[in-house]
Amino acid sequence: MIIQARGLEKIYRRGAQQVAALRGVDLDLQAGEFAVILGPSGGGKSTLLHVLGGIDRPSAGQVRVNGFALESASESALTRFRRDHIGFIFQFYNLLPSLSALDNVLLSLLAKGWGWQAARQHGLEMLAQVGLAHRSGHRPAELSGGEQQRVAIARALSVDPALVLADEPTGDLDSATANELLELMADLNRSLGKTFIIATHNQETCRFATSLFEMRDGRLSPKGMS
Amino acid sequence: MRLLAALHYLLIDLLYEWGRSLLTVGSLALIACAYLLITSLSVAFQSFGEQAPPTTNLLLISSDVLDPVDSTLTLELLDNLRRYAEQAYGPGALQAAVPIIFRHMRVEDSVVQLFAVPLDQAARLKELQLVEGRWPEGAHQAAASRWLAQQHGWQIGSRFEVYARTFTLTGILDSPGRKTLSLWMPYTAGQEMFDLRDKFQMAFLRMRSDIEPQEARSFLEQSPLLSDQYAVYLEEQLNERYTQVTRTLLALTSMINLVALLVITFGAYNAAWLTLAERSPEIALLQVLGFSQGNLRALLTMRLLLLSLFSYVAGLGLAAWSISRLKNASSWSIQGVQLALQLPLLQVLLGVALMTTFCLLGAWMSGREQRSTELAALVRYH
Ligand SMILES: Nc1ncnc2c1ncn2[C@@H]1O[C@H](COP(=O)(O)OP(=O)(O)O)[C@@H](O)[C@H]1O
Ligand SMILES: [Mg+2]
Q1: Chain A CB contacts of B285 below 8 Å
Q2: B201 near B74, Cβ under 8 Å?
Q3: Domain A3-222, CATH
Q4: Which of B164, B194, B227 is the C-terminal boundary of a domain?
Q5: A19: Cβ below 6 Å to ligand 1?
Q6: Which of A92, A127, B14, B75 could bond to B21 as cystine, CB 3.0-4.6 Å?
């Protein structure tokens, strides 16, 4: 079991108001799955991914990811956890605009303490895996939206994480490009055996799912595969 | 992250933001240049303020002038003073009264103090020492202070123009104490050159040694001959006042220096902070990728250091260039005392050390601010 979450709650305070973004979420996920969480905007998908990825802490409940108890971890332990176990892909702003595609991939490796030469070598291989070997020297502004997301995927996978969390990875792409990207992720999931969790409101994504969830009003429920 | 990789990325990033980097480095370089020039000036003042040896000489001069050049005395006044002193203290009370013709002159692009004096008497009073050659004679010979000769590469027998007249150098003098640019010639040569009968600017007076210098001074000052038209100073007192002024200047320049360094660091800090604020999504991204607060603070510190050091080095270049220009264009002197502008290595390094300290302090302070930002909130506004 790579993820075990029990009774996760997350309450945001907005002035006097309270917003419950997670209301008792339970989740068990096997390693190697390609899990898709569908749901309307505001349903709590991002919040759940942030909690699972050690970016945010739950207000209540327990969560274990790859054997790591996140609810009680210190700030610096969470940072190390993210570095060593998680690959993130966001909708926008995945890349530093000043750096080339390759350098953006290298950031994760360097944070992990890789040497320069080895990191470069490995970074180039990762870019080749997502089909971008020929654009390694280009800055994000010189890449299309789909290419930018491929770089983000290369970076997320470069550190060999236990879990890849993708929050609306295709939200900003046209449907053809979105499909290509989903196919790439599904391929990598199969060939590398990496666990993926994709949060999206794009119905198309279901086609690739090995397990499917719906998230609505802070509640997560398994959804039958169709 | 490895140091070199961090440097590599910081440089890329500074180049990417080249507009702001240039603006920051440019403006801070100007301040660094000002710092170095002030330092150089204060170092020059330090040597300028070296004490002249104590003397018991009295200096007679018009009382209402700012520059001794505007003072006017007559031989008749000296004669009267001598008689006045003898009435009170007996014969020989005024041992010496040496007239001095004094000018600031431009000689081969230096401003030089020109003294025309009865050289045999002056040498005794001023403790001038001939280190080379012999005393000048006649209307076309002069002796130069060691500093002046060095500055122009003059040797015994060198010729130069003063007031449209050619002079030959017959001697080089050492006057202990200050590094003056001075030129000495016989009194008669000065009289002739400036067409003066019995007028001159100052006089050295020396009373008999059994009369206290202070007493002698007040005795002479109270003389009706001088009334409030002329003043008598102890040469030592003048020097003392000079040193005081120099000390005050030094204290002032070191304060200005400290402020300049703080401004540089603050400017770099401000630029780095602006960048941080604008780029909070990027910084959040780095945190998500597993860069620790410590890593990020180290990066910020290095960024600060890089900006400051670039500014400092650019400022150093600018200052060195300015100083060489100033040296070529004219020699800086105050009343004929040479200001030797230079950038001593020690001061340059001191600036680097202080600035580094300030940078570390600044980064430490901003590190505490960073910690309080909420990562999840930052990531959400991607
Ligand atoms: N920092 C925050 N402060 C207050 N409310 C928040 C904050 N972040 C998220 N929310 C609220 O939590 C709920 C879930 O948001 P989110 O997890 O972003 O949903 P989704 O990703 O499914 O669109 C929303 O109602 C949102 O407005
Ligand atoms: Mg969302």
Answers
A1: 93-94, 96
A2: no
A3: 3.40.50.300
A4: B227
A5: yes
A6: B14
